[in-house]
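Help! Submission page says 'invalid entity' but I think these are all valid:
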Amino acid sequence: MPRSVRVASVSDVPPGGSKEVMAEDKVIALFNVDGVFHALDGICPHAGGPLAEGTLRGTTITCPWHGWQFNVSNGQNCLNPRISHKYFSVKVEGSDVFVELP
Ligand code: FES
């Protein structure tokens, strides 16, 4: 059953920023794109790099290890449409950020 897990305060991730958080046992990369939060599986599907430590430009995160790029709003790989990374729905309630786990 889907469940909502609090992962951060809004103030933890300023616009243009990212942060690695835990939602139960899952590593999540949380992104703030101009005030809108997005969440991807925090482990890069290429070789396990920490996506939250990459460079965020607009909705594109570049993995710090080998440069794979993903759209943080849907998990789509920017160069290879056959690669899609796990995306989690995010909601903000007051000053708290929640990630929806399946
Ligand atoms: S581990 Fe992310 S691009 Fe290689």
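Support: the input was valid. A stray whitespace character was the problem, and the output above is from the cleaned input. The chain has a mean pLDDT of 97.
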